[in-house]
Amino acid sequence: MTALYLATAVLGLLVGSFLNVVIHRVPRGESLVRPGSRCPRCETPIAARHNVPVLGWLMLHGRCHHCHEPISVRYPLVEAVTAMLFVAVTARLGLTPELPAYLYLTAVAVALAVIDLDVKRLPNTIVLPSYVVGAALLAPAVIIDGAWGTAVRGLLAMTVLFGIYFALALVYPGGMGFGDVKLAGLLGLYLGWMSWGTVWVGTLAGFIIGSLAGLTLMAVGRAGRRTAIPFGPAMLAGAFVAIFLGGPLASWYVALLAPPGA
Description:
Blueprint: H1 2-25, H2 55-59, H3 74-93, H4 99-119, H5 124-145, H6 148-171, H7 178-194, H8 196-219, H9 232-257
Helix pairs in contact: 1-3, 1-4, 3-4, 4-5, 4-9, 5-7, 6-7, 7-8, 7-9, 8-9
Subcellular location: Cell inner membrane; Cell membrane
Membrane topology: Multi-pass membrane protein
Function: Plays an essential role in type IV pili and type II pseudopili formation by proteolytically removing the leader sequence from substrate proteins and subsequently monomethylating the alpha-amino group of the newly exposed N-terminal phenylalanine.
């Protein structure tokens, strides 16, 4: 298993490096292919040896080799966090047919969370194709394991969460965007694949995390009652809480509700 975790970590670093490109260019409508990686300030191409995930930033001491302007620490953080999440998801699922699908969700989650924090938007160019990619990556598990019931539950959860968030967006448009609605359906597919308990834990955790984040920002003077706070990162964080802890949390809640001696 150590070799698997090491390979997953390296893959996560490489994917994280690409996600930095996605995070920077997708909101601007720029190509992900051309031009190659370059300094965002002086636009000098980045040498291959300086483009190694995390290590390249450390080698440059966090500054552009050409213009010496600071390079945001967010770049190596995105790479490192992606690698750590890849390893954690691999440890959670093991070498199963579903693993590629959940690694893909992990990569999408990192990109969407940072983009939403940056521009308060969840780009359709990432969210909508992820429905197709997610379903395609989960399909081998249906074929190999015969998990037809699991697939149906995932599709039902996708529909239910999309419907719930759609209703919330209609009732309270100032607090819920349609980007959140589309993301909810995608998360429903993945959480429903695991269990209904995971769906409800992930949904509730998202609202709790979003509320706590909003209250914290208000307490420190970074936001007011009318400040628009992106909800996508909270939804994604809640989903991953459920992926890792959904089963135990759901069981604990059911036991809490059950009368003594039942």
